Structure formats: C-alpha cells, structure tokens
Amino acid sequence: MPALLPTEFFAEILWLGRVADSVEDLSAEPLDAMDLSFEGIPEDCHAGLTRASCSRVRAQHPRGTTIANTRQVSILSAEELEEISDTLGIDEFDPAWIGASMILRGIPDFTHVPPSSRLQADNGACLVVDMENRPCVLPGRVIEKQNPGHGKAFKTAALKKRGVTAWVEREGTLAVGDILRLHIPDQRAWAHLESARAE
C-alpha cells in the first residue's frame, strides 16, 4: 500500500500570483500560469532552496539561521477567503492583497489538510503541504490601504483560515483552471497531540 493515498478531493486553481518584494509591498502580481521549479516560483521573493528562519520556527532556530525553504508557495482556499472577506465586510476581496501564490476551490477545511499532503496536477507537477500558514499583520496593512477601516481586523478574521505553505516536489507548469488532486499521508493522527500542547 502506498504511503500517500490519492483522495477523491479535487481543487480548481482560480487564481495565481507572484510577490516580487514582500518587504516593499506584500501585494502579488496576478499570473495566468506559473512554471514551478525546485526553488519555487521564479522571480518570487519566497523562492529558494533555503531561507532565513523567522519567528515561526523560533523555538527551533535563532532568527536568521539558514534552513530548508518549505515556505515557497502560499495557498488559500476560495471558500475560506470568502469567510474572511465576509467577516471583514469586504464585498470583493482581491487575493493579491494578501500575497497569495494560489487560490483553490473544492477542498473543505483546506487550512487543516494534513502536513505532507500533496497537491498534484495531471501533468505531474506536485506541491507538498508544509503546514498551516498562521496570519500576520502584513496583509492587513495592504487591505487597509485598499479598504480603510477593514484591514486591521485581518489577523483575527483569518485565524485558522489562512491556508497553507508548500514547497515544490516535482517541477511543472500550473495554470488558472487546472485541477489539483489531494493526496494524504496514510497514517492516523498522532495520539499525543493534546498532551504535547499542554506542556
């Protein structure tokens, strides 16, 4: 039996984007298609085989330590983005505002798919889910510029709905309209998760 099981959950790519410089401006440039390499999305500021560690892994590494880059791609679901938009009171939410790489529709509770799940296209291009992408204040600043009075609540509104980060396992081209299949690890949930959180 394979260690990764193909599921009957499929998602359509609704939107693709690339962030040139997240320090200057987190906004993403919309794309019709993207060529994924083992370093991620070409010309995206999150591309690279390695990255400098950040606050997300501060319990493991001093900030700025060179580590493997498992945060090459930021993926959100349209369903969860609509919930965020409704909470913020924004009628038309532009995925570019939050620096998204990809918006998908079709996989329920997308932010909580198991780490190490795969999203694979018919052409073989494959992304590996790292983990939930916790919301930060940076998208809120962009949203606030576009919709004054709405951006400051983004971090709270996006909690548990911010999607996942991922890295490229197999190179290939993805385009708007492509369908990705979800593959999940064939293992039960770790029985000691709650006790580990309590310590």
Structure description:
The chain has one domain: Beta Barrel (M1 Pyruvate Kinase, Domain 3). The chain has 199 residues and is α+β, with helices and mostly antiparallel strands. Strands 1-7-6-10-9-8-12 form a seven-stranded mixed β-barrel. Strands 3-11 form a two-stranded antiparallel sheet.
Widest beta sheet: strand line-up: 1-7-6-10-9-8-12
Shape: globular
End-to-end distance: 35 Å
- Topology-level CATH name: M1 Pyruvate Kinase, Domain 3
What proportion of the residues form beta strands (DSSP E)?
25-35%
Q: What is the fourth-level CATH superfamily? A: PK beta-barrel domain-like
Helical run tally: 4
Helix content: 10-25%
Which key phrases capture this entry?
alpha+beta, M1 Pyruvate Kinase, Domain 3, 7-stranded mixed barrel, 12 strands
Concise structural overview:
The protein has helices at 78-88, 138-146, 154-157, 193-198; strands at residues 4-18, 29-31, 33-36, 50-52, 66-68, 73-77, 102-105, 118-121, 126-132, 164-170, 172-175, 179-185. It has 199 residues and is of the alpha+beta class. α1 (78-88) links the parallel β6 (73-77) and β7.
